[in-house]
Amino acid sequence: MVLMAIAHRADLTxxxxxxxxxxxxxxxxxxxxxxxxxxxxxEARKLVVREAHCRSTYQLTNYGEGHVWAALxxxxxxxxxxxxxxxxxxxxxxxxxxxxLKISLTLAARRDTSQNVTRSTYDQIASYAxxxxxxxxxxxxxxxxxxxxxxxxxxxxxxxxGASHGYRLAHLFPRLHAGTTxxxxxxxxxxxxxxx
Length: 196
Hints:
The chain has helices at about 1-10, 20-30, 30-45, 95-110, 120-130, 135-145, 180, and strands at about 15-20, 50, 55-60, 120, 150-155, 165-170. The protein is an alpha+beta fold. About 30% of the residues are buried. InterPro entries: WH-like_DNA-bd_sf, WH_DNA-bd_sf.
């Protein structure tokens, strides 16, 4: 949750975020203690570097030219008070909440930019997000209930019976979808090698 809040505040040119504990607690709806714990964890996992000479300054690691990046929905996730209402139902007591965040970031990272959808199998999601296969459905339910993801069905690329699924992040380029890009091209994007 803290990583998302920091990423939303990061400068697009250098990945440097200047934000206070108060802003992070408001955005996430968690206590200062939990924000501090989250920052410690992000630093330990080398996802964020706290700037030693500047208070309230956080550097996203591996940011900039030549590094892989992902677009995250931002402004529409916040209300007027600066809080992300989607976190109102996150009590930090259920694994499905953490799994949902991991899947959300995975879908953002794996998104086909030409179609604005992520088409991945459960096996791929489990591998990329680092969660157990049987936990995916519940985590996707958390994302869906909170209006963060919509699931779309597609014909299988291999012609076998059944359907494959695509996942669309809410509030991220909402005008870019199958209706505007042409249904005939679905499955022909940059990450088509990952489609099933």
